[in-house]
Amino acid sequence: MTDKTTLIKPEIVLGATENNFEQIALAVFQFQYAHNQIYHAYCNALRVKPETIISLEKIPFLPVSFYKSHTVISLKDTNTSPANQINYDLLFESSGTTGEQTSRHYVLDACVYEQSLLQGFEQFYGNPSGYAILALLPSYLERANASLVHMARVLMEKSQHPANGFYINEWEALHETIERLEKESQKVLLLGVTFALLDFAADYPMHLKHTLGMETGGMKGRRKEMTRKEVHDELKNAWHLENIHSEYGMTELLSQAYAKADGLFHCTNTMKVLVRDINDPLEVNKTGNGCLNIIDLANLYSCSFIATEDLGNIYDDGSFEVLGRMDHSILRGCSLMAV
């Protein structure tokens, strides 16, 4: 199935821009059709002829649920081991209730992930070295292979600030650290799962001037369901912040999108979001309401074309908001809130 002529170097996908994104994505499609056994079979089941794929909207998007039932990898070259003997750098696993099958994302090249993460973060927030990074991630820290924990760890390693750290429920210590860094006028990124940020804010209201609060979604049944606006208003009021930031990512993706205000997300350079019709999954458009399809070029060695179970709205400038989850979907640990 493999074809050496379709191999793509990681630096090509990492160098994606608005001007060349479609060209690179179409090349990645041809590469993954040739090198990804599961994706190849899925495209064939849809009777897709690869030579007819000439636009982003025509690319087949693999249902995200395949990461629960299959090993989704694209062989890096013709000498790569078969799927049952894969050599991978990282394994990301989703959370799940007891007995539920979880997603498993094999990352064959950690360098591609880390470079994509860092250049995407710098695109929106500058070099991580300018921040002290505090990660409030209960439930994620308590399980192995959480992609969100690894993301925070990579940012901390790049930051190198001595105050960097992970927190589960050590709220008093977290409060003392933030207060000290505020007095030092040190920029802080407080990255947290939503229910933990809300609980922490309720117990430790502060007047923050140098801290950026970023929620990653996730209520985990720990609180009543709230809209994103309600969450942000509560956090803004507790901490006297003008805006609360948001991060959009998932186990099955290596790229992220960020919202600096009001849950309006913008993609990093290796990512683009399309929308598919709820009733016709093969009807895909660049704008409008429906289910979100993600193109993640950093997923070079898994699958770059993912049909998620998130509902959303995409605007003319490519920004998007997440409106909730499809009714039939099982809510996962990092479930996103309706707005």
What is the compact description of this entry?
By secondary structure, the chain is an alpha/beta fold.
Give descriptors for this structure.
339 residues, alpha/beta, 9 helices, 29% helix
Characterization of the model:
The chain is α/β, with parallel strands linked by helices and 339 residues long. It has helices at 10-14, 21-35, 37-45, 66-69, 110-125, 147-159, 171-183, 194-203, 228-239; strands spanning 62-63, 90-93, 104-107, 132-136, 165-167, 188-192, 211-215, 245-248, 257-259, 266-267, 271-276, 284-285, 288-296, 305-314, 320-325. Helix 8 runs parallel beside helix 9. Helix content is 29%, strand content 21%. The strands form three sheets. It has a seven-stranded mixed sheet, sandwiched between helices.
SSE order and pairing:
Elements: H1 10-14, H2 21-35, H3 37-45, E1 62-63, H4 66-69, E2 90-93, E3 104-107, H5 110-125, E4 132-136, H6 147-159, E5 165-167, H7 171-183, E6 188-192, H8 194-203, E7 211-215, H9 228-239, E8 245-248, E9 257-259, E10 266-267, E11 271-276, E12 284-285, E13 288-296, E14 305-314, E15 320-325
Parallel strand pairs: 1-14, 4-5, 4-6, 6-7, 7-8
Antiparallel strand pairs: 2-3, 8-9, 9-10, 11-12, 11-13, 13-14, 14-15
Rounded mean pLDDT is: 90
Low-confidence stretches: 1-5, 329-339
End-to-end span in angstroms?
44 Å
Instruction: From the alpha carbons, calculate the radius of gyration and give it in angstroms.
Output: 20 Å
**Which strand order spans the largest sheet, edge to edge or round the barrel?**
5-4-6-7-8-9-10
Query: Could you tell me the strand content as a percent range?
Result: 15-25%
Shape annotation: globular
What's the SSE pattern? Answer: HHHEHEEHEHEHEHEHEEEEEEEE
- Residues in helices, as a percent range: 25-40%
Q: List the total number of helices.
A: 9
Structural class: alpha/beta
- Total beta strand runs: 15
Question: Biggest sheet, open or closed, and with what strands and sense?
Answer: 7 strands, mixed
